Amino acid sequence: MTSSDGVGVVETRTATLFDPDHPLQLARGTVLAPVEVAYETYGTLSPARDNAVFICHALTGDAHAAGYHVGDKRPGWWDNLIGPGRPLDTDRFFVVCANLLGGCQGTTGPSSIDPSTGRAYGLDFPLLDMSDFVTVHRALLRHLGIDKLLAAFGGSLGGMQVLEWALTHPEDLRNAVVIAASSRLSAQNIAFNAVAREAITRDPGFSGGQYVAEGTLPDRGLSIARMMAHITYLSEEAMADKFGRTPQLAELAPGFGADFAVESYLRHQGESFLERFDALSYLYLTRVMDYYDPFARAGATDAAAASGVRFLTASFTSDWRFSSLHSRRIVRHLEHAGIPVTYRDIETAGGHDSFLLEIEPYHATIRAYMDRALEEVR
Amino acid sequence: MTLRADLALVADLVRPGSRVLDLGCGTGSLLGHLAREKGCSGTGVEIDGDAVLVAIRSGVSVIELDMDHQLSEFADHSYDVVVLSRTLQTLHRPHVVLQEMIRIAPRVILSMPNFGYWRNRIRLARGRMPMSKELPYDWYDTPNLHHATLVDLEDLFRTVGLVALERIPLTVDGQRLRLPESTATWAAGSAVYVLGGA
Question: How high is the ipTM of this complex?
Fold first, then answer.
């Protein structure tokens, strides 16, 4: 049960942060302009500007983390965490969430229009790096007049972005909260991403990435990618609890249709994903994850160690997409560098998606950590 | 917040400015005290969820891991001192943990209840497993997997190559024992040791 009605009705705003006169310099050397960023804010920035918390979303997330858009039945994706009285208490914290670069929910991405051609970038969109997400979100902070975050906060890919932020620009953050994340994808992780991308690019509707101009869509590929990925976000136990071998209808009718409830559920997940996600974004963003390996850089932890930034890292015992070993690797690198790091391995059956769930010890941990963080600046 | 008597004694043994690893840190009261009073930094290790939350709330960095199997996460010589308070007897492999501790830091501060305390001996002589302030559990429902006298414990130190630089016998109330040092093996409810490598 959440302790209040949440932040209420919210809307997504858009800021143009880079233009042809001031283009975005990407890590791989190319430039991009214009760059628009979709974001939402909840709560109020304090006069001392010391209570800002930045939310970095996961692979398929968006800027709408909390509250309701007009007419919506479901709240934002992290509504159980953000709101009055919740662990990220909007009576005390000013929370910002932005869609990341390369996304498809209002921030510039590969399906945005390339001003030089008048059509979607497609595969001409530059390859991105984790640090590019940080560059863009730092620009958003300047736009909002925030010099220093009380915390950057993220799960999964969002946690990876927070890690990158804290390692490369620790002066921006007092605290980095990295949940169910990884500092280096395993062969198995990359393999899952690879199959998802193959499903998309081999769909005839992909049209070499110019599907918008061609009027085709790689819907079949994108929904298969989502169905497969969704399996990896749940644990075997969670799927057994939720579906077991329950038939979709009153009883099993052997054949090749979606006879089991789990099959129907996955189909629904695949279909509904098409309404909100873009196939090119899926390619670009998963590729950023594949290549990310920050601790391989010389002196990777030097800046963070000198800055005083503190980390909270958490994993979930049933997460096999980014198992606890991934979080422990992050903790090991930070701890060896003498960086203050707190780590919890939360017992839960929910799998990777546990970071989105309201699990009491997990939320209590965030609450304790953030209460302390705020107390420290006051 | 005042520190538990035995922890206050441990705190006195930690040099100012040290980097401290507190194994079984509980609510983090020792680390919090050392940070405030002696300019120390450091990390706690704890597996009790409620205690971890209190530690986090108080600003102590705490890592949840299994001391029996995961101390390898810590690098060689990465701390100035490792503290283990009244926990060694609850671990599956105390000898391995002792070796890990001296690998992580050059100094180890360890406290341990004394099974050879005279009241324990009397209770055992009467045919019952000891129960006391130090050992408050029924034999079938106790976190204490190993019972050792101070003599047994000191044998183990020698076996794993540790040298006792200092021994402070305590009463069952955690106060310094005022009897002669030679009485410690039967008069002390517990003892605090400062250990170094051989």
Answer: 0.94
